[in-house]
């Protein structure tokens, strides 16, 4: 489990890391409503929901339950969890067993140094703007065993690297709108607002974390969801039954 650090988890540096063309200090001002230049207009991705578009909820509208996942895109344990359980979660959401909600933090940028968590989240927002399917496929690539960097590496800070990963996502490959949004940092302020939503979840002390209708899905008292898909599925099923009785 990647543990959160104190404060709001954001570095207050202006420039991005190596290959990151973002001005994160300016993006923060835009997130608060007073942006200028490339961040003069706050933009949330299409297919996002809620105030400021910070709710990333995918699945059928008639689903009776919501599985909420808290992750950091640089977190290696999150990558392992997604590799083990991401496919099942996607299938269950598509089948209407529950909606899947994603809340992304960026605290590893402060703990490990760099801007990769924020930059990858901004790029993921650009994928969500294209379609929910593009979002899920791109997220799978970002968390994949052969593409996810070591926690101390800041490969996701490189805009061109993030664009290059779309070669594995048919819907994003050669998509001019996606590439422009990543290189221009269109969703940088949105990424900060999503990160602030993560920071506001006081009961979440690290990543990955999972909740079914507000009930923590965890192995023992560790706070971490199990990696084993069978065990994870059984815990989710039991939580759904308890939620239905409430």
Overview of the molecule:
With 246 residues, the chain is of the alpha+beta class. Helices cover 42% and strands 11% of the residues. The protein contains nine helices and seven strands. The chain has helices at 24-31, 76-95, 108-112, 116-130, 132-142, 159-164, 176-184, 188-199, 229-245, and strands spanning 2-3, 56-58, 66-72, 99-105, 206-207, 209-212, 215-216. The strands form two sheets. A five-stranded mixed beta sheet has the order 2-4-3-6-7, sandwiched between helices. A two-stranded antiparallel sheet has the order 1-5. Helix 1 crosses helix 8 (188-199), helix 4 runs antiparallel to helix 7 and helix 4 (116-130) packs across helix 8 (188-199). The protein starts with a strand and ends with a helix.
* Structural class assignment: alpha+beta
Helix content: 40-55%
Would you identify the regions where 5 or more consecutive residues have pLDDT less than 50? 6-14
The string of secondary-structure elements, in order, is EHEEHEHHHHHHEEEH
Overall 3D form: globular
Mean pLDDT: 91
Major beta sheet summary: 5 strands, mixed
Straight-line distance between termini: 30 Å
Briefly, what is this?
This protein is an alpha+beta fold. Helices cover 42% and strands 11% of the residues. Helix 1 (24-31) crosses helix 8 and helix 4 (116-130) runs antiparallel to helix 5 (132-142).
């Amino acid at each position: 489990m990647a543990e959160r650090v104190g404060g709001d988890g954001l570095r207050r540096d202006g420039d991005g890391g190596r290959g990151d063309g973002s001005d994160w200090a300016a993006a923060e001002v835009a997130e608060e409503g007073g942006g200028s230049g490339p961040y003069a207009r706050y933009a949330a991705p299409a297919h996002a929901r809620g105030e400021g578009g910070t709710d990333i909820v995918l699945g059928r509208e008639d689903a009776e339950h919501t599985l909420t996942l808290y992750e950091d895109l640089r977190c290696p344990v999150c990558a392992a969890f997604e590799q083990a359980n991401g496919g099942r979660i996607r299938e269950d959401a598509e089948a209407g067993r529950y909606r899947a909600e994603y809340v992304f933090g960026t605290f590893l940028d402060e703990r490990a140094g760099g801007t990769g968590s924020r930059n990858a989240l901004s790029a993921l927002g650009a994928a969500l703007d294209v379609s929910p399917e593009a979002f899920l496929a791109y997220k799978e690539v970002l968390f994949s065993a052969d593409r996810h960097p070591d926690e101390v590496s800041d490969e996701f800070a490189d805009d061109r690297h993030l664009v290059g990963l779309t070669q594995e996502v048919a819907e994003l490959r050669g998509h001019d709108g996606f590439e422009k949004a990543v290189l221009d940092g269109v969703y940088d302020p949105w990424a900060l607002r999503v990160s602030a939503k993560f920071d506001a979840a006081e009961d979440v002390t690290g990543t990955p974390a999972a909740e079914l209708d507000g009930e923590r899905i965890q192995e023992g008292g560790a706070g971490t969801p199990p990696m084993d898909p069978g065990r994870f599925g059984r815990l989710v099923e039991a939580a759904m039954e308890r939620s239905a009785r409430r």
